[in-house]
Amino acid sequence: MSSHDEDWGEHDDAAPGDEHTGGSGFGAIQVYLLGLLLAVGLTIASFWIAGSNLVWGPGIPAALLALAVAQIGVHLIFFLHITSGPENANNTLALAFGVLIVLLVIVGSVWIMAHMNHNMMPVPMDKLMRMQR
Amino acid sequence: MSQTATPSDIAAAYIQHGPYGVGHDPHGHGHREARGHGSGGPAPKRVIIGYGFWIFLLSDIVMFSGFFAAYAVLAHATAGGPTGKDLFDLKRVGIETGCLLASSFTCGLAYVAATMKKQLQTQFWMLVTGLLGLVFVILEVLEFYEMVVAGAGPTRSAFLSAFFALVGCHGLHVTVGGLWLGTMMAQIWFKGFRPHIMRRLLCFNLFWHALDIIWVALFTIVYLLGAGA
Description:
The complex is a heterodimer of chains A (about 130) and B (about 230). By secondary structure, chain A is mainly alpha-helical.
């Protein structure tokens, strides 16, 4: 128990949004600049892919979603400074729980409603007559 | 009997040592620097406030996920009315995206300037952030206005109800964020970089970056998937 605590005791917790660049403003601005560069690149890529036939048509939604997830990751790391370090464990765990709930709500809704749409397909008339008998 | 701990023993140990059995070090010696892991006292106020606000932001994102789910389910329920392909102007959405992304960046610059206690620089970058946010809101209001005038208001179809609820909710967040930004500028100007003002600025920064994250999901799922694919 105590050895476990000593491993962790090296670091203070960090608030989300805290930078870890040693306190100089210049390093912090560099981190923001790099984040901006990556985010702009990913945004341009998404808008470009959406309007072109660069990617196989049915693959476009998957490509766009992948780009969006990548960009959200860039925002989290470079703007919100959420890292995988031990001082960020609380923030990362809260984020993981949030992502779990978001995925459950969205994937669950889409999945269930798609099934209901499928089950509500109009039934051919002769089949309906047979069911009523 | 001496090997088994009775409930009162456990309670006594809990009171003495805290839930993790390492104690709060009431005599002031030992691991003072190991904050937030059961010893050395509570984390600094700044960390606690930042964490609390982070929890709020995540719950806000969970609320947005409800709107996203509604939109995803209703996206094709156009009731014979206009579809996303007919309505969405990707050029305008691109400008909106650029504004919000740039304002996220300048918001970060304002925070860096504030940590260095540079008043004018902080005010300048916050003003730029606010103006970019204002351009974003104006463009969005213009889009809503044109859609309603063209007979594609929120009452036209389930798709449009979900669209206006989702995008409008994000726009409302940006508007409220803009009001908060103005308040923060006044507070920094008149009160200076006191610790509690800096904590509020940290929270505002988190809020503004979170709005940009939601917008990334929004322009991808609503506009790009709606207009293109």
